[in-house]
C-alpha cells in the first residue's frame, strides 16, 4: 500500500470517528448502506460498502446513466435542460448550470478573485451578480488532470423522472419490496425511454421509479412532514474527487479531495421541492495552498439570488472553523454520516436535526397548523436527539407538550388542548435543560378553530348532516392512513423506522363528542363541555403500500351505535341538552371503557347535528307509538323534539342580556352592499356566503347574493343611563357578539322581519342574515362561554336556527324575534381612499392627485387617545423598471447593472401596518422571476405566512384574509381589529395572468385601499370647516399621512375629477415629502433639504420595513426577514445620480410629450437632416411610448390612464388603471353617502299576508311597503306604508327630525268564506236591526202615547174631582157655581167637599156640564 493511499485511509477513519456519538450503534450495520447490492460497488461508481468511497452516496457514474460535465465548461458551468419546472426559493427553473466550483446555479456567477461571493452581505447587487444557486460546497475547485491510474475525477449528473410523466403507469412493473438496484438501461435510446427528452442523461424507466421511491423513504426518515410529498423528478449531481483550485499533485496524492452529491427532488405540480446533500469526503476547507483557509473559504449554502436571501447548510461554530465537518456530522445521524436535508421550494427550511450551539435555529414542525381542540401530534425537526433523554415542546403562555423520540432527527410531540387562535411561539429542548447549546431551537405553531381546520376529518357534505330526514342512511368517512401511528410503537421499538408499514397498523374508533355550554355547580359558572357520548364504529387503519398516498374511504352507518357512553336515563333526558357535536377519529385504547372521556390524538370533523342519534337505539323513541324503522316516524319525532328544544332555547336566550342594543348601536349593518365592500375595517365577506370569494355553501342565508360579517368582535363603550354623553372619554372594549348582514341582487339589506311574508313556502330562497350572540371567530381567551370559535356560534346561534327554522314547523319567526336583522339606522359610512398604479391617489377625504417620489411614507398615522389606539401604516414607493430592456443582451452589449433601468414613475411595492398591541403585518410584492406561485408575500411578526389551505388567519389584534380566486394570492385584506381600520392590497389589479400569453408573471405593483372608521372624525366628503372644533370637543385624534395629506386644509375636489394640474404638482409634492417621508428612505441626496416638518405632529420616524419589534427579533434569522427589508427593484448607484436621477413628470409635460410623440409618429417626413434624424430617433426612443396615438385614443381624458400608459409603455396597465379609477370613484360616491333609514316595519305578520313586491327594498327613505293577502283572503287594516322624514314641531329646534313609517293599523287577512259569511250575517243582522229599530220606534211611540194618555186620564180625573167639589160648594150656597176664570189654572182649583156631588162624574151630568161651559180648561170653546 502506497503512503498516499495509507494516509487517505487513515484520514477517512478519522472522519468517521466523530460520527459515533450521533449514530445508534445497534443499528449502524443495517442503516449505513447504499441503495443497491452491498458487494456490487466499484471504485469508480462509488457504490457499495467500500470505506474509501460511497458510504452515503447514491449510485453515480456512467454505469448509473450519468453524463459528465464537459471539461471545457467545468468552471463557467454547463447548462442543462430539466424538461420540467423545479421550484427553488420562490422561483421556477427549467434549467440549471453545473459547475466544478460546487454549485447548481441559475445565473452567471462572478468568479473574479479567490472567493466566490454570493448573498446579500457579500455582493454589490445589482452592480454585480448575485446568482441563485444550490451550493453544496462553494469554492474554487478543479477536476485534477494528473491523477494516478487508480483514481477518477469529474462532475456527473443525470435527471430521473417518473414514468407516469410520459403517459405510463408508474410502478406497474416494479417490485417495491426489492432490495437491489438494477443495472441501467443502455439497451435503448433516451428518446425511446423518455419521449420528448432527447438528452441521454434523462432516465424514466422502472429504475427511475424505484429511485424516486427510495428518495421518498429517505425524506420520510429525516424530514417532518415529508410523507405528504411525492417525488416525480430528481436531478442528481455528483462532484467526484474534486480538488482545490490551486492544489498541486502532492495535495491530490495526499487525499485532499472532495466527493459530495446533491439530489434535488420535486413533484409534477412544481409546488414542493427538497434537496438532499451527501458529503462523502471533504479534503480541503478553502481554495488555498496546503489546506490553508486564509482566502477562498468553502461555503455550503442556498442562495435565493438578487438579494432574496441566503440560508447556510450548517450555521454552527464548528462549520465556521472548518467546513470539512460537514462530512463528519449529519442531519440524519440515524441514517448515515454527511447527509443533510432541506425543503427549498419557496423559502429554504432546514430539515433533519442540527447541532447548533446558541443563538436561534428555526425548527421544522409538521403539521404547523393545529386544531385548537388539541389532542394531536406534531413531528419536530430540531436538535439531534438522544433516545435516553426526555424532550419537551414548550408552548408560549400554555402548558408543555411531551415528546417521543422516533429517530435521531424526528420527535413526535403530543399537544394538549390549546384554546387559542393564532400563532404560538414554541421552544424545543431536553427536559433537563440548562445548557446553552440546547436553547437555540425556536419555531411556531398556528392554532385554528375546528371549523377552519384544513386537516379536519372528511365526513362528506357537512350540510347533509343538518337535514331532516337525513338524505342517506350512510355517510362517507375519508382520511389518510399515514396520519395515524400505533400509540404503543415507542414502547417496543428501540429505533423507529418511519417507512415500516407496521408502524401504521392501528385500530381506530369513530367517536361522537357532544358540545354544550351549561352551568357547572362546582365552579358556579357556565362553561363549555365536550363529552364523548358514543362510539359509532371501529375501523382498521390500512397500512399497505398503496395507502401511502391513497386516502382510506369508509362509510358511517347513521342508525347503528357500537357503544354508548350514556345511561338510558341520560339518553332520554340529557342527550337533548346537547344541540350539536362533532366526530373524532382516534386510536382505540385498551381501557377505553373505563375512562371514555379521555381519547388519544386524532382527527376532528366539522360540527354536525346530533338528531340522528335521537332515534338510534334510543329507549325513549322505541317506547313511543312510532315504528323504529319508519322514516316518517323518525322525521316527526325529530320535529317534535326540535320544537321542544326551540322553545327551551327561546326561553334561555330571552333570560340573557339583550345584546341587540350593543349590536345595532355599535355595528349597524351598512345600508347598501357597496358600503359593506368599502368598510374593510368593520366588515368582511362571509367565509361561506360570498360570491366574491366563490364560496356560497351557507344554508342559513340562502337567497342572498353576498353576506358580510363583522371583521372583529363588536366593540362597545360605557353606556351609563343612556341619557347623557358619558362615553366620550372612555375606552372601547370588545364583546363576544357578532353581526351578519346579507344583501339581495339589488344590493339592499335582507330583513328578518319580512321573512314570514316573503318566504311563503319552505323552498323560497329568502333567509336573511342575523346577528350572533357568539361571534363565529370567537373571543379571546377562547375557552369560556360564548368564546370558543365556531362551537359557541353553533351552540348559541346556528343550531337554534336549524331547530326552529329547519327541523320544527312554524317556529322560524320565534327565532327571528330573538335575532332580528339590522335596519342600518345607526350606520355611519367610513372614509375610503386608494392609491393605484403609478401613484394615483384618491385620499380618504377625497383629495385627488398623482404623486411620484421614491421612498417610504407614512400612509396613515393616528396618535393614541383614550378611546382609540395608535395606528401606523407605511407604504414603500419604488421606481418602476423599464420593461423594454432586453435581458438577452446581458454579457454581450449590456452589463449586470443595466438590467434594471428605472423609469420616472413610482409604484407601491409594499405596505406595513400595526396598531397598539397588535402584530406587525407586511404585505409585499415579490421580486421579478419570483411571482410564479405567489405574487405577494405576507409576513406577520417576521414569519412568512401561507394561505393555501387557510385563507382566513387571525393573529394578535389583526386579521388577514385572502381572496384566492385568482392564482398567487393577489388580493389581501388586513384588518386592525380594535382600531377598525382595514386595507385591501391588490397586486397588479388582481389580473388573471394565466390568460395573458405575453406575460410570464404579474407586473409587480400594488394597489392599496384604506378604510377608516367614522369614530376618528374623518369626513369622506373632505369638509374640514369644523374639524378643529370637533377634535377638541370630542377628543378626536389627528389623522394624517399620504392618504390624508392635508388634514387642516379644506378639500375643494369633492365633486371634481383628476386633472392634468394634479399630476406631480409642486403645490403639494414638497409638503408630502417633508411631512410624511421617512428620513433616509429616499434616493441619494433627496433628504438634504428636508426640514422634517412631520416631527411637529409626532409622525413616526421608524422605517417599519427595516426594523423589527422586540418580540419578533428572535425570528430575524429566518430567511423571510431579508425579503421585507430590501427593495424589490433595486437599481445600481449610477441610476440614482446625474442624468438618471428621478425627476417628476408633471401633467403639462406629459401631455406635451404625448402630443409631440404622436406628431412624430404620424409625420410623413422621412428625409431629415442627419443630426435632426438622430435627435428625433433618440427622443422617440427615450421619451415616447411605442404607440403614442393609441395612448391618446384609448385613454381619452382619463388622466391616470394617460400617465400610466405613457410612463409604463404598457396598454394593459393603462386600461386597468382607467377602469380601476372609474370604478373606485363611482363606488366611493355611493359608499360615502349617508342613507336615511326607517328600519323595518314593526308589525305582526299573521297568516296569508304577503309583501308586494316580495324582494323590494323596505327600510330606506322613500321606500314603500305594501302588504296584500292571497286570493283566498281579504286584506284588512292599513296595508301601505311609506318611509319618510318626520319633523317634531312641538320642539323649539326645528332642525331635529327623524325617519319613520307612517302610522297605521295592523294589516291582517280574513278568509273569503268567513268574509262572505260575515257579509250575509251583516245583511241579516241589518235587516233584523231595521225591523227591531222600527219595532223600537213603534214601541217608543206607543209608550209615549200611553204615557200621554195616562197623563190625560190623570188630568181628567183631577179635573173631575175639582168640578165635583165646586158643584157641592155651589149647592150648599144656594146652587150658584163659581165660574172658571180664564186665567185660573186648573191645578189651582180648590176642592170643596161641600160642593162635591156624585152626579158630577156621571157621564150625562158631565156632558151637560161641559156643554154649558164656555171655557174648558182655560180654552175658549164657545163659537
Automatic annotation (TrEMBL):
- A matching Pfam family: Ig_F54D1_6_2
InterPro entries registered for this protein in UniProt: AMOP_dom, DUF7658, Epithelial_Barrier/Signaling, F54D1_6-like_C, F54D1_6-like_Ig-like, F54D1_6-like_Ig-like_2, NIDO_dom
Its localization reads:
Membrane
Q: Which keywords label this protein?
A: Membrane, Signal, Transmembrane, Transmembrane helix
Q: Where is this region: Disordered?
A: 1355-1423
**Keyword Membrane assigned:** yes
The organism sits in which domain of life? Eukaryota
Signal peptide positions are 1-28
- Biased composition (Basic and acidic residues) is annotated at 1386-1405, 1412-1423
Chief location: membrane
Regions crossing the membrane: 1317-1344
**Annotated NIDO domain residues:** 184-347
Q: What does UniProt give as GO cellular component?
A: membrane
Instruction: Set out the biological process GO terms recorded for this chain's protein.
Output: cell-matrix adhesion
Domain AMOP, which positions?
A: 638-819
Could you confirm whether the keyword Isomerase appears in this record? no
* The name this protein goes by in its record: AMOP domain-containing protein
Q: Which organism is it from?
A: Caenorhabditis nigoni
Q: Gene name?
A: Cnig_chr_IV.g13984
Amino acid at each position: 500500500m502506497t503512503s498516499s493511499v495509507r494516509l487517505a485511509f487513515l484520514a477517512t477513519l478519522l472522519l468517521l470517528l466523530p460520527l459515533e456519538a450521533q449514530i445508534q450503534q445497534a443499528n449502524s450495520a443495517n442503516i449505513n448502506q447504499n441503495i443497491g447490492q452491498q458487494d456490487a460497488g466499484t471504485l469508480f461508481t462509488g457504490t457499495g460498502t467500500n470505506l474509501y468511497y460511497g458510504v452515503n452516496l447514491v449510485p453515480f457514474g456512467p454505469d448509473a446513466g450519468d453524463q459528465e460535465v464537459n471539461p471545457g465548461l467545468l468552471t463557467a458551468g454547463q447548462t442543462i435542460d430539466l424538461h420540467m419546472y423545479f421550484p427553488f426559493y420562490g422561483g421556477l427553473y427549467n434549467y440549471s448550470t453545473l459547475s466544478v466550483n460546487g454549485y447548481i446555479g441559475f445565473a452567471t456567477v462572478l468568479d473574479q478573485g479567490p472567493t466566490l461571493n454570493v448573498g446579500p452581505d457579500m455582493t454589490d447587487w445589482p452592480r454585480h451578480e448575485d446568482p441563485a444557486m444550490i451550493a453544496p460546497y462553494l469554492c474554487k475547485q478543479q477536476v485534477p488532470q494528473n491523477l494516478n491510474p487508480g483514481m477518477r475525477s469529474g462532475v456527473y449528473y443525470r435527471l430521473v423522472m417518473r414514468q407516469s410523466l410520459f403517459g405510463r403507469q408508474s410502478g406497474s412493473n416494479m417490485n417495491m419490496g426489492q432490495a437491489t438496484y438494477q443495472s441501467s438501461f443502455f439497451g435503448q435510446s433516451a428518446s425511446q425511454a423518455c419521449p420528448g427528452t432527447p438528452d441521454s442523461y434523462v432516465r424514466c424507466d422502472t429504475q427511475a421509479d424505484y429511485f424516486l421511491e427510495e428518495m421518498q423513504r429517505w425524506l420520510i426518515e429525516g424530514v417532518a412532514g415529508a410523507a405528504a410529498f411525492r417525488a416525480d423528478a430528481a436531478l442528481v449531481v455528483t462532484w467526484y474527487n474534486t480538488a482545490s483550485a490551486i492544489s498541486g499533485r502532492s495535495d491530490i496524492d495526499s487525499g485532499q479531495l472532495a466527493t459530495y452529491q446533491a439530489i434535488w427532488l420535486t413533484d409534477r405540480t412544481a409546488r414542493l421541492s427538497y434537496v438532499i446533500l451527501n458529503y462523502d469526503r471533504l479534503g480541503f476547507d478553502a481554495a488555498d495552498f496546503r489546506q490553508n483557509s486564509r482566502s477562498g473559504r468553502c461555503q455550503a449554502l442556498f442562495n435565493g439570488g438578487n438579494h432574496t436571501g441566503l440560508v447556510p447548510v450548517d450555521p454552527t461554530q464548528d462549520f465556521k472553523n472548518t467546513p470539512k465537518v460537514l462530512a463528519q456530522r449529519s442531519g440524519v445521524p440515524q441514517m448515515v454520516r454527511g447527509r443533510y436535508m432541506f425543503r427549498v421550494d419557496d423559502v429554504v427550511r432546514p430539515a433533519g436535526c442540527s447541532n447548533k450551539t446558541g443563538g436561534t435555529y428555526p425548527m421544522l414542525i409538521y403539521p404547523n397548523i393545529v386544531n385548537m381542540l388539541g389532542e394531536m401530534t406534531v413531528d419536530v425537526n430540531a436538535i439531534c436527539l438522544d433516545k435516553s433523554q426526555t424532550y419537551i415542546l414548550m408552548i408560549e403562555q400554555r402548558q408543555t407538550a411531551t415528546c417521543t423520540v422516533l429517530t435521531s432527527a424526528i420527535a413526535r410531540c403530543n399537544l394538549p388542548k390549546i384554546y387559542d387562535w393564532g400563532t404560538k411561539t414554541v421552544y424545543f429542548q431536553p427536559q433537563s435543560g440548562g445548557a446553552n447549546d440546547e436553547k437555540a431551537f425556536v419555531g411556531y405553531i398556528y392554532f385554528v378553530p375546528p371549523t377552519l381546520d384544513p386537516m379536519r376529518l372528511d365526513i362528506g357534505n357537512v350540510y347533509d348532516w343538518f337535514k331532516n330526514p337525513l338524505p342517506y342512511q350512510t355517510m362517507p368517512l375519508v382520511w389518510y392512513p399515514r396520519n395515524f401511528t400505533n400509540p404503543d410503537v415507542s414502547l417496543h421499538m428501540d429505533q423507529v423506522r418511519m417507512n415500516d408499514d407496521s408502524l401504521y397498523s392501528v385500530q381506530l374508533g369513530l367517536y361522537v363528542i357532544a358540545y354544550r355550554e351549561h352551568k357547572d355547580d362546582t365552579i358556579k359558572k357556565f362553561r363549555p363541555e365536550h363529552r364523548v357520548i358514543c362510539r359509532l364504529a371501529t375501523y382498521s387503519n390500512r397500512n399497505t403500500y398503496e395507502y401511502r398516498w391513497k386516502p382510506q374511504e369508509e362509510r358511517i352507518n347513521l342508525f347503528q351505535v357500537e357503544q354508548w357512553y350514556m345511561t338510558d336515563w341520560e339518553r332520554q333526558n340529557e342527550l337533548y341538552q346537547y344541540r350539536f357535536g362533532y366526530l373524532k377519529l382516534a386510536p382505540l385504547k385498551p381501557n377505553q371503557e373505563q375512562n371514555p372521556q379521555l381519547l388519544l390524538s386524532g382527527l376532528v370533523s366539522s360540527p354536525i347535528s346530533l338528531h340522528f342519534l335521537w332515534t338510534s337505539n334510543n329507549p325513549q323513541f322505541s317506547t313511543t307509538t312510532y315504528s323504529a324503522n319508519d322514516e316518517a316516524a323518525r322525521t316527526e319525532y325529530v320535529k317534535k323534539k326540535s320544537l321542544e328544544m326551540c322553545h327551551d332555547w327561546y326561553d334561555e336566550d330571552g333570560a340573557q342580556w339583550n345584546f341587540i342594543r350593543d349590536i345595532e348601536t355599535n355595528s349597524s349593518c351598512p345600508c347598501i352592499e357597496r358600503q359593506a365592500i368599502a368598510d374593510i375595517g368593520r366588515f368582511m365577506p362571509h367565509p361561506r356566503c360570498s360570491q366574491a370569494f366563490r364560496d356560497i355553501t351557507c344554508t342559513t342565508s340562502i337567497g342572498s347574493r353576498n353576506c358580510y360579517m363583522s371583521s372583529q368582535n363588536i366593540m362597545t363603550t360605557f353606556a351609563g343611563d343612556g341619557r347623557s354623553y358619558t362615553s366620550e372619554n372612555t375606552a372601547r372594549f370588545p364583546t363576544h357578539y357578532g353581526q351578519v348582514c346579507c344583501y339581495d341582487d339589488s344590493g339592499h339589506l335582507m330583513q328578518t322581519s319580512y321573512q314570514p311574508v316573503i318566504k311563503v313556502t319552505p323552498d323560497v330562497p329568502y333567509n336573511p342574515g342575523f346577528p350572533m350572540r357568539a361571534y363565529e371567530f370567537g373571543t379571546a381567551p377562547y375557552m369560556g362561554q360564548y368564546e370558543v370559535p365556531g362551537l359557541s356560534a353553533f351552540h348559541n346561534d346556528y343550531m337554534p336556527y336549524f331547530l326552529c327554522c329547519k327541523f320544527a314547523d312554524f317556529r322560524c319567526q320565534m327565532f327571528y324575534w330573538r335575532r332580528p336583522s339590522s335596519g342600518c339606522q345607526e350606520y355611519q359610512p367610513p372614509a375610503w381612499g386608494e392609491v393605484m398604479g403609478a401613484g394615483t391617489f384618491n385620499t380618504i377625504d377625497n383629495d385627488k392627485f398623482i404623486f411620484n417620489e421614491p421612498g417610504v411614507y407614512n400612509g396613515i398615522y393616528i396618535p393614541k387617545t383614550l378611546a382609540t389606539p395608535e395606528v401606523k401604516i407605511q407604504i414603500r414607493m419604488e421606481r418602476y423598471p423599464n420593461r423594454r430592456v432586453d435581458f438577452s443582451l446581458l454579457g454581450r452589449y449590456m452589463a449586470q447593472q443595466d438590467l434594471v433601468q428605472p423609469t420616472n414613475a413610482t409604484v407601491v411595492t409594499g405596505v406595513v401596518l400595526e396598531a397598539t398591541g397588535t402584530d406587525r403585518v407586511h404585505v409585499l410584492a415579490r421580486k421579478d422571476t419570483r411571482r410564479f406561485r405567489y405574487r405577494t408575500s405576507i409576513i406577520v411578526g417576521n414569519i412568512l405566512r401561507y394561505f393555501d389551505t387557510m385563507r382566513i388567519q387571525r393573529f394578535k389584534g389583526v386579521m388577514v384574509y385572502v381572496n384566492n380566486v385568482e392564482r398567487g394570492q393577489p388580493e389581501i385584506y388586513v384588518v386592525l381589529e380594535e382600531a377598525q381600520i382595514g386595507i385591501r392590497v391588490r397586486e397588479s389589479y388582481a389580473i388573471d395572468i394565466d390568460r395573458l400569453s405575453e406575460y410570464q408573471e404579474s407586473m409587480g405593483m400594488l394597489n392599496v385601499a384604506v378604510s377608516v372608521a367614522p369614530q376618528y372624525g374623518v369626513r369622506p366628503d373632505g369638509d374640514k370647516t369644523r374639524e378643529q372644533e370637533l377634535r377638541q370637543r370630542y377628543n378626536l385624534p389627528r389623522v394624517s399621512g399620504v392618504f390624508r395629506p392635508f388634514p387642516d386644509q379644506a378639500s375643494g375636489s369633492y365633486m371634481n375629477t383628476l386633472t392634468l394640474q394634479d399630476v406631480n404638482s409642486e403645490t403639494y409634492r414638497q409638503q408630502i415629502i417633508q411631512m410624511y417621508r421617512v428620513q433616509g428612505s429616499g434616493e441619494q441626496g433627496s433628504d438634504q433639504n428636508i426640514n422634517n416638518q412631520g416631527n411637529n405632529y409626532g409622525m413616526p420616524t421608524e422605517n417599519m420595513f427595516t426594523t423589527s419589534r422586540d418580540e419578533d427579533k428572535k425570528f430575524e434569522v429566518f430567511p423571510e426577514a431579508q425579503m421585507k427589508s430590501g427593495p424589490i427593484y433595486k437599481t445600481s448607484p449610477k441610476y440614482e445620480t446625474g442624468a438618471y436621477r428621478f425627476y417628476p413628470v408633471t401633467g403639462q409635460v406629459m401631455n406635451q410629450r404625448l402630443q409631440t410623440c404622436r406628431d412624430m409618429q404620424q409625420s410623413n417626413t422621412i428625409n431629415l437632416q442627419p443630426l435632426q434624424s438622430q435627435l428625433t430617433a433618440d427622443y422617440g426612443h427615450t421619451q415616447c411610448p411605442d404607440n403614442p396615438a393609441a395612448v391618446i385614443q384609448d385613454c381619452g381624458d382619463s388622466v391616470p390612464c394617460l400617465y400610466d400608459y405613457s410612463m409604463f409603455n404598457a396598454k394593459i396597465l393603462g386600461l386597468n388603471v382607467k377602469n380601476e379609477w372609474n370604478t373606485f370613484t363611482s363606488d366611493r360616491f355611493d359608499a360615502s353617502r349617508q342613507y336615511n333609514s326607517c328600519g323595518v316595519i314593526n308589525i305582526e305578520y299573521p297568516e296569508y299576508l304577503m309583501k308586494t313586491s316580495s324582494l323590494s327594498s323596505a327600510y330606506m327613505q322613500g321606500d314603500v311597503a305594501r302588504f296584500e293577502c292571497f286570493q283566498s283572503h281579504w286584506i284588512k287594516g292599513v296595508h301601505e306604508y311609506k318611509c319618510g322624514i318626520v319633523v317634531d314641531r312641538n320642539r323649539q329646534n326645528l332642525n331635529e327630525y327623524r325617519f319613520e313609517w307612517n302610522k297605521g293599523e295592523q294589516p291582517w287577512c280574513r278568509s273569503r268564506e268567513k268574509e262572505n259569511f260575515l257579509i250575509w250575517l251583516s245583511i241579516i243582522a241589518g235587516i233584523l236591526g231595521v225591523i227591531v229599530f222600527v219595532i223600537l220606534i213603534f214601541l217608543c211611540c206607543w209608550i209615549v202615547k200611553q204615557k200621554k194618555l195616562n197623563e190625560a186620564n190623570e188630568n181628567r180625573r183631577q179635573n173631575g174631582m175639582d168640578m165635583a167639589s165646586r158643584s157641592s160648594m155651589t149647592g150648599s150656597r144656594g146652587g150658584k157655581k163659581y165660574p172658571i176664570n180664564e186665567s185660573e189654572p186648573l191645578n189651582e182649583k180648590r176642592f170643596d167637599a161641600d160642593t162635591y156631588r156624585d152626579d158630577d162624574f156621571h157621564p150625562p151630568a158631565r156632558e151637560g156640564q161641559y156643554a154649558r161651559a164656555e171655557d174648558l180648561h182655560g180654552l175658549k170653546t164657545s163659537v
